[in-house]
Amino acid sequence: MIQGRCPICSKVYEIAALDDLPSFPFCCKRCRLIDLGRWADGKYLIPGSPVPTSSAAPDADEDDPA
Ligand SMILES: [Zn+2]
User: What domains appear along the chain, each with residue ranges and CATH number?
Assistant: First the structure.
């Protein structure tokens, strides 16, 4: 059993395996989208709408969880 807490809404979830939560580490797809929206600096994310990926990305920051 894996316990985790959604970094967006702080909801605590419990899953048997990571496969059970496709949106890991977020509790749901919605929170995952919210996080994606935060990364897209200066852009507003409309839930349900696909976010176009910019081909002009000057630098790609990689967040490495310790
Ligand atoms: Zn959440």
Answer: 2-39 (3.30.50.10)
What global pTM score does this model have?
0.56
Residue 9 Cα to ligand 1 midpoint, Å, equals 4
User: Ligand 1 centre and the CA of 18: distance in Å?
Assistant: 15
What secondary structure does DSSP assign to 31-61, as a single string? HHHHHHHHHSTT-PPPTTSPPPPPS--S---
Residue 44 CA to ligand 1 center (angstroms) comes to 18
pLDDT tens-digit profile of 19-49?
A: 999 999 999 999 999 998 887 755 555 566 6
